[in-house]
Amino acid sequence: MAYEWWIGARYAGLARTGRGGRRGDRFVSFVAASSMAGIGLGVAALIIVLSVMNGFQTQVRDRMLSVLPHIELYVPGSGHERVLEHWRDLADAARQDPAVRGAAPFVAAQGMLARGQGLSGVQVRGIDPTIEPEVSDLADQMASGTLDSLAPGAFHMVIGSQIAQSLGLMAGDTVLLLAPQGSISPAGFTPRMRQFTVTGIFSSGYYEYDASLVFIDVQDAARVFRDSGVSGVRLRIADMQRAPQVAHSLLDRMPAGVRAMDWTQNNRTWFAAVQTEKRMMFLILTLIVAVAAFNLLSSLVMAVKDKRSDIAILRTLGATPAEIARIFLIQGALIGVVGTLGGVALGTLVAYNIDVIVPWIEHLLGIQFLPQQIYFISELPSNPELDDIAVIGATSLVLSLLATLYPSWRAARLQPARVLRHD
After folding, report:
1. Mean per-residue pLDDT for 179-191?
2. Which helix (H) or strand (E) holds 373?
3. CB of 403 within 8 A of CB of 328?
4. Residue 23: is its pLDDT beyond 70?
5. Are 72 and 376 in contact (CB under 8 A)?
6. Considering only Cβ atoms within 10 Å of each terminal Cβ, which end of the chain, N or C, has fewer?
7. For the whole model, what pTM was predicted?
């Protein structure tokens, strides 16, 4: 098969005769190089786009989990005071799992903030400020004030930066917190409300949480929301990716009635949407590689037509149809392999250095692709994953090899007598 590899490589433009080749060879090599470039650019584009999408997903996930715990253990239907009295028992049982790194009590409920004519629906989280750093990075995200200002009976509150902006609040201002439960009197339904003093503003960089989360002391939350919400223990584990497995295993150590909710369940809709978007983007960008594969098919058909005389001569010299087919299979395979490897190298290089390339392009063009006041990030994130790169490379190789089948079959069916008679 040595001559088949040599001829196939020459047709692919990867081998030369000693005399520089004929004009027809140069044309076939040019078309082959175009096919290689098309496959390479398609593979590189797919790797870069999916790496950027992975980077966005990772960055948003990390910002979400800087405020929220990895796992929540809660007791539905149980009074907050009773749960808070025994939360250390749940925490000690959870710490028997070596994956658990921290535990803190919480009360979660929904309410409404009122300031003058402004109203804002919020998610209220009652926390213990002295233990909260074990399960979240909230203390490090304080734009003003400190988390330690939350104290039992003081009715202080830490709010998100977007809530502060929408209601015009600053540290030291007072705000009215309304609970969904209340009392019925002859005058009608009166919601339960309590005045709080804003003592801190946090900024997580994730708009949804900055616009909806407020934190108060866990004891104050138990008093205000004594008839609503849930309470339990927030946990942080060593590997956030194992949160579903750890949450399931923790239930075996917990008393009856305790439930576990991990961060993937709390944000299931968002992550499902991201995964669907990623799959659709993969399918759409795979069409670029498919177009390059069709280009490879057409270039091989042109090569077969241009090399009819060469094929006829080889057949008269004793080459079998299978050997002729292998020549063009080798040509197409070499084009696909070289194009795919070049695309993987280019895409990986750009994906791993996008933090340098994008600022250089912004400086060169005098524009900013990601204004921080809009996207809350100033750099384009990128997170290349080896699994994605392997799937992209394998997909490109399969499409390239499939594109070689028909031209090779046509070359093997050429009749040398008919070709030589017409040529």
Report:
1. 62
2. helix 372-375
3. no
4. no
5. no
6. C
7. 0.69
Nearest to 84 by CA among 217, 214, 219, 256: 219
In DSSP notation, 303-353 reads HHHHTHHHHHHHHHTT--HHHHHHHHHHHHHHHHHHHHHHHHHHHHHHHHT
Distance CA 339, CA 227 (A): 65
Nearest Cα to 14, choosing from 333, 363, 358?
333
pLDDT tens for 46-85 read 899 888 888 887 877 777 777 778 888 888 777 788 888 8
Residue type, 125: R
First to last CA, the chain: 28
Q: Check if the beta carbon of residue 71 is closer than 8 Å to that of residue 243.
A: yes
In this structure, what are the phi and psi dihedrals at residue 121, rounded to the nearest 5 degrees?
A: -75, 135
| Rounded CA separation 287/114 (Å) | 52
Reported confidence tier of residue 3, pLDDT bands at 50, 70, 90: confident
The DSSP secondary structure of 51-120, one letter per residue, reads: HHHHHHHHHHHHHHHTTS-SEEEE-TTS-HHHHHHTHHHHHHHHTTSTTEEEEEEEEEEEEEEEETTEEE
C-alpha span between 161 and 119 (Å, rounded): 15
Residue 372's pLDDT band, with cuts at 50, 70 and 90, is low
What confidence tens digit (pLDDT) does each residue in 78-115 have? 778 888 888 888 888 888 888 888 889 988 888 888 88
* Nearest C-alpha neighbor of 404 from the set 288, 286, 298: 298
CA dihedral in degrees (126, 131, 132, 134; nearest 10)?
-150
213: left (phi over 0), alpha (psi -120 to 50) or beta: beta
Separation of alpha carbons 385 and 58, rounded Å: 11
Which tens digits make up the pLDDT trace of 309-361? 777 888 778 888 888 888 888 888 888 899 999 999 999 999 898 888 877 88
